[in-house]
Amino acid sequence: MKIFALLVFVSFAGLAQNTYNLIPLPKEVVPQTGQFVVKKSTAIGYSHADFAPVANLLQEYLQGSSGYPIPTKSAKSSSIQFSQNNSLGEEAYTLSIHSSKISIQAKTGKGAFYALQTLLQLMPAQVYAGTKMQETISIPNVQIKDEPRFSYRGLMLDVGRYYYPVASVKRFIDLMAVYKMNTFHWHLTEDQGWRIEIKKYPLLTSISSVRKQSMLGHYKDQQYDGKPHGGFYTQEEVKDIVAYAAKKYIEVIPEIEMPGHSQAVLAAYPQFGANADKIYQVKTKWGVSEDVLFPREETFTFLEDVLTEVMALFPGQYIHIGGDECPKTQWKESKFCQDLIKKLGLKDEHELQSYFIRRIDKFVTSKGKKLLGWDEILEGGLSPNAMVMSWRGTKGGIEAAKQNHDVVMSPNSYFYLDYYQADPKTEPIAIGGNLPLSKCYSFEPNLPELTAEEAKHVVGIQANLWTEYISNIAYAEYMTYPRALALSEIAWSTKESKNYPDFKKRLTGHLPAMDAMKINYSKAFLAQP
Fold first, then answer.
1. Nearest-CA neighbor of 484 among 26, 61, 161, 174?
2. Which among 46, 196, 345, 384 would be 20 to 30 A from 140, CA to CA?
């Protein structure tokens, strides 16, 4: 019997109901009666070295809450057993809970890790807190077969507007892992701040990382706090965060914006902009700057140097180069740019931006990496292995898929988490918009405009947290959760199982676990249809 439901109840005469408040919903859930109880004799075994870190993590949770010395060992027989099954997919797993034994099968450590996340959601909420429970730990019996719908399940954190300390970035990653998201898009540069150490260009951290002040209140108020804001991540800190994420099977994709969103660069290195003699400052006002990088050879040298250092820090395959919202006014007024347009046989400034992106694409590809950018990078053609992130609705993603480019769907109307999630009168300040949890959940990546073959290029979805109004991790969590859980379910669970009332009921049942993890989530969805 296969059940795709939000909340699964099973009742047998004389037996208590088992409840499974799982997010994201597994592919197949077969309810069982009874429970597995953690005892003094409970032990964790694993058949393959790849499972050892996951077994050790489970040990930490169980020891902390039960007070028992739960041993882990490389053994084929234990009351909780991780076993290898090479017939499963890379991220797939099976989880079988019986009163006498818990059996987890996976092909890889990644699959075992996702099984662990499901297992933890089945335990009492206090286990997440790691505090010793007064009662025994009981886990409802169930049989689960699971694998994700999409390979790319992402969240983006913008640290260009506000610097987030290393501990906050790790916290953001921690919560992603709980809900089986596997890609952390780290937006590291902006008009308002540069956040990554580049050893060849030290002024990026001494000048470009600090702005004189930040906007106070809403943009329309045009008020400022008068306080400098800055910060950056050293290369050692970047390596630490990337390694930390890898332990949770999360790939980190860095974003280095170009040719727009680069006023902070020009504050340190004005020679890469319209006027080498102009005094630029790191932008203090939110919004898009007219000051952009110019397609001079020395600019490309600079960007290639920067990307060379960046690529050495991030072992993943993708490098995000932005490519969005580049005003063309300065290029239009520039004799250099107009001469270059004629020399290259281009039609206009838009084609000049395409030339800029193609140059960077060629360089990134030559280094064995793949370029990723917002949907504006489609204009003018890309190398076959470049991937497109569709943010202006789904049109760019559809076009990219039809051109055989892989696509991450990230439409602003569904996945921009800086939008209000309830009546603005009742909410902390945000950029605007209206994006309740139900709207997030309603997005469907399988678009009718695409053929079955074209749809294969839609590799996943991502939600984005832009931080003009979000200066700390507590507010970041409030804006991200529970809306990120809608993304998690859409990206992981089957299309056929989508059911918002069920999801909402399951989420409500899961709130004690979120409380135990001290997630500062919004409760606005509880009062919404």
1. 174
2. 46
- Note the pLDDT of residue 4: 40
Q: 304: helix, coil or strand?
A: helix
CA dihedral over 405, 418, 413, 21, signed as positive or negative: positive
pLDDT at 3: 42
Please give the helix or strand (H or E) that residue 371 lies within, else none.
Answer: strand 370-374
3-state SS of 81-148 is: EEEECCCCCCCCEEEEECCCCEEEEECCHHHHHHHHHHHHHHCCCHHHHCCCCCCCCEEEEEEEEECC
Predicted pLDDT of residue 379: 83
What is the rounded CA–CA span in Å between residue 40 and residue 42? 6
Q: How far apart are CA 66 and CA 180, in angstroms?
A: 25
Count Cβ atoms below 10 Å from residue 405 Cβ, excluding itself: 19
pLDDT the model gives residue 75 = 80
SS3 520: coil
Around Cβ 446, how many Cβ atoms within 10 Å?
10
Please tell me which residue, 94 or 10, carries the higher pLDDT value: 94
Q: How many CA atoms lie within 13 A of 483 on its CB side?
A: 30
**Spatial contact of 134 and 124, defined as CB atoms under 8 Å apart:** no
pLDDT 10s digits, 67-98: 999 999 988 789 999 999 999 999 999 999 99
Q: What is the pLDDT of residue 17?
A: 55
The SS3 assignment for 379 reads coil
For residue range 208-221, what is the model confidence (pLDDT) as tens digits?
999 999 999 999 99
Give the alpha-carbon dihedral of 432, 434, 440, 444, to 10 degrees. -100
Pick from 523, 508, 431: nearest CA to 477? 523
Residue type (1 letter), 515:
D
Instruction: State phi, psi for 254 to the nearest 5 degrees.
Output: -85, 150
Alpha-helical segments (H) within 328-393: 329-333, 335-344, 349-366
Give the whole-angstrom CA distance, residue 145 versus residue 440: 26
**Average pLDDT rounded to a whole number, residues 16-31:** 89
